[in-house]
Predict the 3D structure of the following.
Amino acid sequence: MITHPDMQYEENALAEGYSCVCGIDEAGRGPLAGPVVAAAVILPLRYELPGLTDSKQLSARQRARLYEQLMHCPVVRKAVAQASVEEIDRLNILRATHLAMARAAQSLSPRPDFCLIDGLPVPGFPIASRSLVKGDGRCLSIAAASVLAKVTRDRIMCKLHEEFPQYGWIHNAGYGTAQHLRAINEYGVTPHHRRSFAPVAQATLPLEF
């Protein structure tokens, strides 16, 4: 069932005295390859964009249409940031995700004084925040962020696919599909693989005789 997020959470934060509220979401926490991408979005009050909801409920064509509308709307403030594969392996995926989220929020202009973040609480976030489980289906600015993050990351993986087509990233976006796992076993790992993730780590272990 398609959900219809609204701006109640943004309005509540403004009523509490905050002046600039953004929504934040990420894409790419689970894949075996590629960066994790986060987006932060500030929507004007009473903003409407038909069809805007959690990116996972949308087709690729629907996401692309909404992405273009959000990116080309001058009253929508947005920023996209990422944490690299190296940062994911060094920090772990959760901390790298939080880093990407903070980078996105801090890149916004004007800078928000309150953030609505999809998912579980983010300890030590540099801006006052509230976390919302399944927020991308409940909060409109988080839904907008989910679309920007997802489309941006998919395009990154399509670009990387041109360099390493054997892994099928244009289709699997770096997730551990059967095809991707077979390619890792056959061709090894690339600089874009997350070596701290178990299937990739196993592929890089030396053979024992």
Remarks:
- Helices lie at 8-15, 60-71, 85-91, 93-107, 140-163, 169-172, 178-187, 198-203.
- The first helix runs from residue 8 to 15.
